[in-house]
Structures
1.
Amino acid sequence: MQKKKQTAFAEYLSYLTNEDAQRVSDFFINFKQHMLLPLSEERKMRSDLENALMYYNAVGVSVETALSRLDNQNLGGFYARPPSLYYTLDDAAKIYPLSMKHGFMTVFRLSAILKDEVVPALLQIALTFTIKRFPRFATSLKKGFFWHYLDANKQRYAIEEDDSVPCRPMGVGKTSAKSFRVRYYKTRISVEFFHTLTDGRGGLVFLQTLVATYLRLTGVSISEHPALLNINDAPDLAEDANEFHRSSSTKASGFKEKKALQMSGRVNADRPYQILHFKLDSQKLKTTAKSYDVTVTTYLSTLILLASKFATEATKGDISIQLPVDMRRYYPSETLANFTMYAGIRLPLAEITTPSEIMARVKGQLADKTSYEKMSEMMFSAHKMARDVRGFPLFLKSPIAKIVYGFLGEKLFTTTFSNVGVVSAPPEFSEHVESYDFILGPHAINRATCTLVTYGAWSTLTITKNTKDPSFEEEMLRLLEKDGFTVTIEGSALYESKRRLSTKKLAA
């Protein structure tokens, strides 16, 4: 009778000393004590640990050191307890799902680009260790009778190879549906989040904690830092707080606006159609903005207004940019839930002329719209909306909200520009992390959206395209080069062809 082929892990074990083999055996006995997941999930997680041990062996890491890095204490009791919690949504997140179509919602992505290629076996373990510190993220978005909510979802959260379209919509209401996903490609680690789950700040805390955990697994000593969480600390109730009730205002305003112009160009069926990263010298960007006596956000918002005008065939109307504003700057908070509101800048098409002529007006509008008073009023509006419609069944909330508050969604603005600012990180990151990027999921109507994130020497301005028309990004490039920037452009090929190729593979 033919013998069964020895598994790779069994072969690995056969080469160990008796002492090391016993260490590994004891390690997996202890692992079993940390597990209450279904057997199929437990087996996958055990296989993940086996793969990590074999990787360490291949690169010359001793069994003792490998087991120390993979210490089962990093699992805590998370996987040994049944899922019993659920999380109510914050007031902003309650609004997002009201506009969902066909049970899907768009996502946003934050990425760290490392200096060395990602080791998938270690990234998988990093995610397994990290997620327990973020129980709010280990959830599925579900529909209740009155509101959507986040339902605890204990499972093995698997990393994905980043070989398809970024920011794919996520399903809602399915038992196994996730509120986030972790993807990797060469040197890039990306996390994609539901908008209902968290905002840019919360997303960065998760990404930074994940990257730190990954780097520690590779042998890097990472110091404690306020930008990331200790994965073995107990979750803090303050991290789940709905902070919108804290508004100092009793005046509701900030949502009602008239329609804005849209860029020209046919919205492609494949969205995003293309993603472009403009890599800018961060010091040059800061210096250029200062030369105009404005902030980086004001400077780039001005260029976006000009490029938006260039990308439309309309002859009258307003160009409007929506800018997310982190409310933690006004109301300090540790929440990892959404705590972001929006400000808008708007100029008539005919008045958008040159950077030097409109920069002061953009600066003035931003100062006014993002003032403590105005943002508090908008924050109160979000809280009041959630309060006013709380008694209505979920299927009635969306039309009621649109009628009462005049919501027109994307029609209110031409594009979005989200600047998450300068990424804070432990000093050890500088030796291992090259840069970051930030992508907003594709909108239904807007032809392009913009984001900015800065780390070290690089500021990455990302343009997410939903149309083939290149006018917007070409004008942005021309305006930046006119101000003396040397722009390095990275990004995707057109996703249309990639998606068709993927479909053919699936069909085969």
Note: The longest strand covers residues 318-326.
2.
Amino acid sequence: MCARRLLIAAAGASIVLLLSEVSGARAKRQAQSVSTTAHLTTEGALPSLGGAIEWINSPPLTVAGLRGKVVLIDFWTYSCINWRRTLPYLRAWAEKYKDQGLIVIGAHTPEFGFEKNLDNVRRATTALEIHYPVAVDSNYVIWQAYSNQYWPALYIADAQGRIRQHQFGEGGYEEAERIIQQLLVEAGNAQVPRELVHIAPRGVEAAADWRTLKSPETYVGYARADSFASPGGAARDRAHVYAAPSQLRLNEWALVGDWTIGAESAALNGPGGRVVYRFHARDLNLIMSPSVRGTPVRFRVRLDGEPPGSSRGIDVDEQGNGRVSEPRMYQLIRQTQPIADRVFEIEFQATGVETFDFTFG
């Protein structure tokens, strides 16, 4: 789900940007709260961490047991591109300040059904090199205790267990790290290093090119889909043969072939099915899953009808070939400049695949 509103910094004051065209919970653009380290306020006590169905990398943690630590709570879901671009900073802060009194805790609260699967969360935690504690919040108990609405969302608490800062969305990394440093000093650690971490993210974790990004997150399932352009619209929850329109306008997309569109995703019923999208962005990502665990599905990507070549994402080769092997986000296109309107197409060589959500960067 996309963000209802974003908090951004401007001239030292909060500006609330209402996004009327989207609704829900995923923070889209660079967003940050605006308190400065000189004027931190108290936002209330750190809510309970009870309700996790499991803890990864740690025994269960409690608010009482964390007293004396500076605590950063990070709400995440593993297929979220907005969160993935914050992850390098979370890793770096957890490592740099672990001996200074900081503990980073990831609260994994799922967006899609496959993210409720504990084995999927465990695999993602390992693959993404997350070594700090993770509370698996599949029932949204911790999310609700914080009245949270966003991925990603950070809540930073002092050693007395009081939330002193929150931040929704990407960006604001320098400010967040300065706040961590300040709270560690307040906790009595005089040896806190004052330099900031140096991050050079690569691949999926590289920051979006906000200057050229003109395509919004686009869901495939009918519960949140928009700009679907196949003639006749969506036939909900039943098999239907779809076609592409003669022309796609910017940010329109279509299915081709025999698909069943459900509330959360579209499932392919026969080989040769395609998805097409006219987009404007450096990166194009698509969340996909094989319908049957352990049964990969091969696909081929085209950009304006041609193999992507040097514009390929990390999950395809230069000819556009790849395979859906597990439920996750796949980076399919990363263009070089100049960025223009392009037509993306993905064709699947077999049945047994589900598509969930386009994201861009």
Note: The first strand starts at residue 5 and ends at 10.
3.
Amino acid sequence: MAGPIDPEIAAWLRDFPAPDVDYRDIDAVRGLFADYMADEGGPAPRWPRDDVELSTMSVGGVSALMWRPRGIDRPLPVVLAFHGGAFIVGAPLGAERIAVPLAATHGVCTVSVGYRLAPEHPAPAALDDAKRALAGLASIPGIDVDRVVVHGSSAGAALAAGLALHARDIRLPIALQSLSCPALDCRTPATTDEGHSMRGLSPTLSRESVEAMWQHYLADASLSSEGMSYVVPALAADVSGVAPAHITVAECDVLRDEGIDYARRLRQAGVTVGVDHVAGAVHGFDGLLPDGALARAALAKQVEAIVSAVTD
């Protein structure tokens, strides 16, 4: 069971309480997202730097944003990033909070993918975009395709984890899968285990919202269909041989236990895994309150894990 919410996050939630929105209502969720972006100054970079170049691009035919350090001529490691937003909202700018320090301090490039959104584009559309982007990295000048990390937050972590499984199966090396507050298992909203985090209190994401998220994304797809273990990574019967993982889980998050369970399965399969279990944190804390103490610490650990994976 979760402990108390971190005081800094609790104070933020008092000032900005989580809205009562039905995730089944696409227009309501997208309207909320648009209002939030407007309140935050619009879809514009929050941490621009003169030593980091931000550009729009297409990778594998998929729109993306790229952050890269200026003045470095050698081939750069690259993070292929996927934003959160329940598969129905969000934008590539969501990767900025790790992309800027990676480029400015560590000489690592980040490519954040603008994958197609549900329900207009149900699964496997977003995953197909992720695969195309991964294949397209080789076309970007100055990128070292032998040093690739996949990173995702929430729904984006499902894409990153699924892409890591896909890369294993096509024998494409991935240095690390970095998963933050990951959504990995469409079955957990139906759990009857009262001790599971899906049955607990989560002020920024409810069980009903997670259920609606997967319904939008999966539509009428059968879980037994070919390739569904890439779409819903927890369905994979065999996770051995997949890329090492760094998994950030928030204590007060309905998704907490599926992240922990996936880490356990990876370890049992012989995969190296680091888990950052952040006490007092809520779902999406590292994006909602990126300047908070817990978020800064978690983001620093994500950056450290990525840098360690791609440097000798």
Note: Residues 149 and 175 are 5 Å apart (CA to CA).
